[in-house]
Design a protein that fits this description.
This protein is α/β, with parallel strands linked by helices. It is built from 16 helices and 15 strands. It has a 7-stranded mixed β-sheet with strand order 13-12-9-10-11-14-15. A 4-stranded parallel β-sheet has the order 3-2-1-4, with helices on both faces. Strands 5-8-6-7 form a 4-stranded antiparallel β-sheet, covered by helices on one side. A hairpin with a 6-residue loop joins strand 10 (242-254) and strand 11 (261-267). The longest helix is centred in the N-terminal third of the chain and has 17 residues, at 78-94.
Length: 414
Amino acid sequence: MKPRILLVTTRRWFSAARLAMAFSAAGCRVEIACPANHPVMLIRDIAARHPFGALAPLRSLHSAIGRSLPDLIVPTDDVALGYLHRLHEQAPSIDESTSSFVRLLLSRSMGEPDSFSIVSSRTKFLAAAQAEGIEALPTEEIPDLQALSRWFATNSLPAVLKADGTSGGEGVKIVRTEEQGRRAWRKLHAPVGLAHVIKKTCCERDPHHIVPWVRRRRRAVSIQPFVHGDDSNVAVACWKGELLGTISLDVLRAWRPKGPASLVELSQNDEMIAAARTLVRRLRLSGLCGFDFITDHATGRTRLIEINARATQTCHLPHGIPRDLIGSLVSALAGRSLPALNQARRRGIIALFPLAWKSGIPSEMLDSTHHDIPWEEPLLVQAGFAEKDKSLYEKCLQMWARIHPPRAFAGEAK
């Protein structure tokens, strides 16, 4: 019987579709809990879509789990991760008869529940890393403006303020003066504003800010010194505290400052992988997650910045070491021996779809990279390029035809 995978996503990120394709290729039945009109629904191998209501997210997720009965749940963004953590806590109040199954499934999918509060807090997570002897960027939670003033009195600027529970660089502010810092803290700590909710709901079709706005929920804010350096990350597959596979990447270009990567280069950083292995074991993690690092230009020191305790946008890539992430995780889930060692190329620059084309990277730079474009799903490709410029689709189609002249692209075959 095929393993059942339930992807949970609140954001209309194309990475969720790439993940669904990878799990399907690994022999899984893939279902998804997502908002309406999500790009993932453009691919052909989704077995079922479960509605994900922003006004009752926990009940929506509980219902989706009951209908899907998955073997594994995979969150693809931080909001989805937060909902799943809350569902583990509140499942008995939703349905006592099924709460044991739901909580056991969530623990199996993401790791020991004791770690949920740690991976959800930047300060707690980095404190746990430092306790394991891992060099991490100094991070302090800032509960009020007095604490911020004390930090400014003993640290130099610029600095980076971050709000917990945010992703894609949206909850990150680089500040160069104390007044900028105070304004940024007020904005990040305050409940989501009505204008922001309207923009997200109407323009970006993301209604998951409505409930936090109604409840006037405030976010925890932390501060880190700003480091002039190069960003890197390690995406991992893990199972019950064991590291199964890793993908190490240096970030060459990002969609926006401190935002998601658009152009990356495969690398092999043993120091980062060792840190990831230690933290996976320490927190008893399962599933897919990513660790972010920065290498200081001035000192050459590589330090841990944060964890993304959910699938990241590069987890689908078939370049994991020693094995690809999805294949390794599915094998562990099914109780099978791990797949053969990965012989795929381990060096090279990869343009990530569709952000590399949305971020305005020069075409001459793109010409010399591996294009991570899902050509086998033409509707997804068209949707990704249409968000920026429809002509990009035609240009990339022509480029694909030059590289693969013997066969037609699936989207053009008649």
